[in-house]
Amino acid sequence: MELGWMGRVGSVRQEQDDGGRTKGGRETGSMPRPAPCVPRTWPLSLLLTLFLAACTPEAEPGGVTPETLAASLRTHQVDAWYPRVIDPEHGGYLSRFTYDWQPEGPQDKMMVTQARHVWSLSRLAAFYPAEADTFRAMAAHGVAFLRDVLWDAEHGGFRHLVTREGTPITDGGNRFKLAYDQAFGLYGLAAYVAVSGDTAALALAQEAFRWLEAHSHDPEHGGYFQFMEPDGTPLPDGTAATPPKDQNSSIHLLEAFTALYAVWPDPLVRERLREMRDLVRDVLPDERGFLRLFFRRDWSPVSFRDSTAAVREANYRLDHVSFGHDVETAFLLLEASAALGEPDDPATRAVAERFVEHALAHGWDAEHGGFYDAGYYLPGTDSVTIISDTKQWWAQAEALHTLLLMAHEVPAQAARYREYFEAQWRHIDRYLIDHEHGGWYPYALDTSPASRRALKAQIWKGNYHTARALMGCLRLLGTEAARSAVSAAPARPPAAGG
């Protein structure tokens, strides 16, 4: 997940991609074809009833095969990126490439994307055993950059942004240390430790966790403050522009603690994993089935719904429905509960399903497929108005994986979720994958045709969401194949004397 379609919090040197626009006035609650035509202003309860009863995307013969996804993973998420992004001169990974993969610009390096490359390469080392040494070495290259350049040797914690050569960039919001950055440091290091057994990398992850605990954790209300001064002093009231707590850093801390607990089963890590699971599941959601985005210290949500239209629109970045984050969080909650030894926790599964159903009912594009970036419950309505009809790459990737996951998690709806998964892949293949130059466009071409010439990589766009989604889908499809093989196998004769 990224820091939002309306602007990146905490980074002054943000990237502007073609197609990143706000569109107002389109209402949704849209039904996938060939469902009956449903007025988009009907009450939510009736809308959901019709949706669950009759609405599924039109099936196409053949379906998505593991071979198709495996080829796409290799071509567009592995070979398009590696070793191209490796920076042998200054360490870490290059960040900015044109639509046809030409390096461009100063190549500033942001903590989040550097750590995400470490994660991707570590997971690829596990996914491709025959090439594990190659991918592990490329991941180690990034770990060294995290340790030697991005880690603040004086005050602790990971810096947000440095130049290609490693000089800290501290203008404006870039001076802050962010819980979001620390989360991805933990996430990448944990993945690397899992495939390398590197005790030094584990020690750095442990130090980073303890630093986060000391400087960002809120012992009174729980959760973590997003912003810290360079010396680690937390900002319990946030910055002038942004509240102190938010769903984005929270869901990625949840993700990070899930990964860290797998390689370091420390009691405090487990406690914080449960704390974040419960906050994300029980406190952050709106009762209608989506995540609220920003919060005050006591977790009271920030909302501009009852403000004037001008104030509301000026603050859309802080207050909207983010369908991509909702479907991503469904997966992260289920993963966290499994890590806690509660894979069948009914409360977690119910919230995950509610997130996905709400996104399908209100954010799904019935004409072309895919999920819109943002919607809003305007005053006096019980339906969602689409305020951004763009479709960012990361949200579509996360949705692909989550839809297939829900087919496994909710057997009663398995066929329906599988059809949405198939429709989502068709949308991705047609509008997001660049079959000429490789990689994915930042925005789907059906609503952002200028994205065809947008940057393929920048400090907010790596291959973490897309590679993770495809590897996750292939694992799920492998499980399906294994189950089919077992169910088709002839019964064994009883053992002698049995």
Describe the structure.
It is built from 14 helices and eleven strands. It has two domains: 22-85 and 297-479, no CATH class; 87-283, Glycosyltransferase, CATH 1.50.10. It is 46% helix and 5% strand. Strands 1-11-10 form a three-stranded antiparallel beta sheet, with no helix packed on it. Strands 2-3 form a two-stranded antiparallel ribbon. The chain has helices at residues 44-54, 66-79, 111-127, 132-150, 179-196, 199-215, 247-263, 267-282, 309-314, 323-339, 346-363, 393-409, 414-431, 464-488; strands at 26-27, 109-110, 161-162, 177-178, 227-228, 245-246, 285-286, 290-291, 294-295, 374-376, 385-388. A hairpin with a 3-residue loop joins strand 7 and strand 8. Helix 5 (179-196) runs antiparallel to helix 6, helix 7 packs antiparallel against helix 8 and helix 12 runs parallel beside helix 14. It is mainly α.
